Amino acid sequence: MAEFTGKVAVITGSTRGIGRAVAEAIVKGGGKAVVSSRRAEAVEETVQALAGAGPGEVMGQVCDVRDPEACEALVSAAVDRFGGVDILVNNAGLGRFATIQEMGRESWDVQIRTNLDGVFHCSKAAVPHLQERGGGWIFNIGSLAGRNAFSGGVAYNASKWGLLGMTEAMMLDLRHEGIRVSCIMPGSVNTHFFEDGPDPDDDWKLQAQDIARVITDLLAFPDRALPSKVEIRPSQPPKK
Ligand SMILES: NC(=O)c1ccc[n+]([C@@H]2O[C@H](COP(=O)([O-])OP(=O)(O)OC[C@H]3O[C@@H](n4cnc5c(N)ncnc54)[C@H](OP(=O)(O)O)[C@@H]3O)[C@@H](O)[C@H]2O)c1
Questions:
Q1: I need a labelling partner for 65 at 20 to 30 A (CA). Which of 74, 119, 180, 239 fits?
Q2: Is 140 in the pocket of ligand 1 (CB under 6 A)?
């Protein structure tokens, strides 16, 4: 039996980068992945691409995590199609970097509403279904920016710092119900997160698959063990 047989994972922001790598690992491991993002064509393309990665299954649903109703619909679609939810990966997120002097209200709002509110909306929608299964796992994709501030990070630092606190509180709320909650905190990952997109010359950076590996490795831990916070960084970044 493949390692995720029978497991259903909902992954937000999974049409590229880290989220897509997690979805692919779940499908390759025999699980059922629900992929999503704001754009229907990207969702469709991802479903097509991962459908052949089996033995697992994949379905797609458009979901802007800033919209609570869309988050409920995402989880409901997973339950309707696959019968329940075992794993939620709150991955959708973005960074808009500017100083407090330069940052506009819109940039602040989009980061807080995506990186923080979106996690609340999806978790609220998923928790009753994880309870129904008798347990599960919520992975919140934080960042090393959740504990290291930098100039230009006023909104991004706030969102990821808040996410770390939120994750720890949720972990304490849910642990006795068999629901584990972990914050995964990567350093630089070579994805479309950065304006210029992935750079083949940035071979010192982490790859999206490295973060997916953290999640799949944690899923193999025995029920008694809860690695609640994982920091992962490039082992040899350029020297400053
Ligand atoms: N790359 C890094 O160096 C790094 C480091 C630490 C942490 N992280 C975190 O890792 C997570 C994933 O980032 P990534 O590097 O994989 O970036 P990415 O390649 O830009 O992927 C981001 C994904 O999120 C989706 N998305 C954006 N806004 C959304 C919204 N409002 N609702 C639903 N989906 C949305 C995007 O699709 P659409 O645009 O189609 O919606 C895309 O699928 C983020 O939370 C990020 O903060 C990244």
A1: 180
A2: no
